[in-house]
């Protein structure tokens, strides 16, 4: 198993954001972490990447084990080799070109020679179909292009686990399908993906498994066909009903 989350609790002040979250991810899976806004999806991703300390439980990412509280520096260095995160709003550095964004971590974390970092970055953005935009700045990229550059940047450290926060949020149906095919190709190449999403159509088409979060707890999980066709928990039914209303209104 490439990712294990066991009894994860996280508080912000008096509010308990995560309440004993437990699930695992096998190598090669594309897991959709789903639920209504405020359910804790993004917080789980931030905890996995040690961007937010947690209060109780355990996270195991490959050979790295995260415990409650601040992480030792050595743990953080090892973690960066195991997992990459693509933020919802891309978070590309505006003063750097697309290829410079992708080169950044190999240059400054792995200390690889610039020629080697550039060669690797070019191969990544070429594999994601945006090599022709390598010298463009983030403000010059479309939403889909910026997203692909952000994926390439997360892959630049060659992590086996890739996390993505709401990658379909600003995409039209055609771009959403293109992204899904790209992510499936990454799993065929040996990557493992955990993707937060409200988009049940995307999950049905591309996820191998869905995990439903509600009020900081896992309330349902299984294959997309089982969970999204015959939901057993009120939170899953509420998510699907909200998506149906959004589709009708649009």
Estimate the global geometry from the Cα principal axes.
globular
End-to-end separation in angstroms reads 40 Å
Our Rg estimate from Cα atoms comes to 18 Å
Strand count: 10
- Helix count, DSSP H or I runs of 4 or more residues: 9
Largest sheet: 6 strands, mixed
Query: Largest sheet, order of strands side by side?
Result: 6-7-8-3-9-10
Binned, the helix content reads 40-55%
Order of helices and strands: EEEHEEHEHHHEHEHEEHH
Beta-strand portion reads 15-25%
Mean pLDDT: 90
Low-confidence stretches: none
Structural class, from helix and strand content?
alpha/beta
Short description:
The chain is α/β, with parallel strands linked by helices.
Protein architecture, described:
It contains nine helices and ten strands. The longest helix has 16 residues, at 173-188. With 250 residues, the chain is an alpha/beta fold. Strands 6-7-8-3-9-10 form a six-stranded mixed β-sheet, with helices on both faces. A four-stranded antiparallel β-sheet has the order 2-1-4-5. It is globular, with a radius of gyration of 18 Å. 40% of the residues lie in helices and 25% in strands.
